[in-house]
Amino acid sequence: MSPLDASASHVLSSGVPDQVIAVPGWVQENVDTLIGVPLRILLIIAGAVIVRAVAKRAIDRAVQRILQPGDGDNEPRRTGRGPAVLQRDHSRAKERRQQRARTIGTVLSSIVTVVVSVMALAMVLDQIGIALGPILASAGVVGLAIGFGAQNLVADYLSGMLIMIEDQYGVGDSVDLGEAIGEVEHVGLRLTQVRDLNGGLWHIRNGEIRRVRNDSQEWARAVLDVSVAYESNLDTVYSVLEETGHAMRQDPEFKDVLLEEPSVWGVQAMDADGVVVRVAVKTAPLKQWAVTRELRRRAKEALDAAGVDVPFPQRTVWMRTEDNTAAPSGTSGATAPAPR
Questions:
Q1: Over 50: is that where the pLDDT of 337 sits?
Q2: 178 backbone dihedrals φ, ψ, rounded to 5°
Q3: Would you give the distance in Å from CA 3 to the centre of its chain?
Q4: Which of these, 96, 179, 317, 337, is most buried using a 10 Å CB contact count?
Q5: Whole-model pTM?
Q6: Please, are residues 40 and 127 in contact by the beta-carbon 8 Å criterion?
Q7: How far apart are CA 118 and CA 139, in angstroms?
Q8: What are the pLDDT digits (tens) for 90-119?
Q9: What's the sign of the alpha-carbon dihedral 40, 43, 48, 49?
Q10: 265-279 burial by CB neighbour count: b if 16+ within 10 A, else e?
Q11: DSSP structural state of residue 331
């Protein structure tokens, strides 16, 4: 036997080839742990990234579709919803639309990111053999405790989302939120800021808003009550008020503000001082107060020119003398009973 054959026989008898053959067997038994689990984790992460990218792209396209002006944006659009004053003011309408769209898009993107990340993390933990049951149970207890503590905060955010989606009000609107009455300066997911007539800035949590009166929605109405003397001819009063309203509608300064001809609704009340006649007219939003003031001024001048008396409170004053008698010292119109 040659020295080479003797060396080969010694190697075979030493058992080294048996150890070499055992290595591929261990790899085959643990191939799922070494290759399958990391591969599945990579696939989960890649799938989560793709799902998030697709969802974000869809949200961005929806936001851009809202932000992109339509074919008729060069002219006033009547969508049947939204403040008419904003439909006349394209810059404000565009700014408001952009604010709502970007805010909603940001919130939706954040929600998608959180949901996809949590689902991907749960799937990865399941792949590496970590039991999800105890984790979910602990998370449920913690989430329940946090939920009780932060339920007002959650209500604020949900209400803010609904306010924006439903377009209940926006920046520049004149609203009545209960104690807070004024112009909206900011609409957020948690807070709404309103500047009142005296300049005070109100911060209202969206979850506390139970009802909203929006004076900037679609159109407004100017209502004017005119009091005339009982001796006045109501037909003359009606005619004067109708002519005054028609002349105001023809005025170029108010032509686009008054949406219809002012109408005399008739006798609203008969009180102690005179007969109250009501006049009303539809106006552009936020213009009703200016229209009411101007209409009141014009009605006063027209009634004076027509000789219609405007009543005013009239009283008789009684003065007591030293002999304990009372006599009227002066009378101006209607009398009041003397004190006894």
A1: no
A2: 110, -110
A3: 96
A4: 96
A5: 0.57
A6: yes
A7: 12
A8: 556 666 677 777 777 777 888 888 888 888
A9: positive
A10: eeeeeeeebbbebbb
A11: E
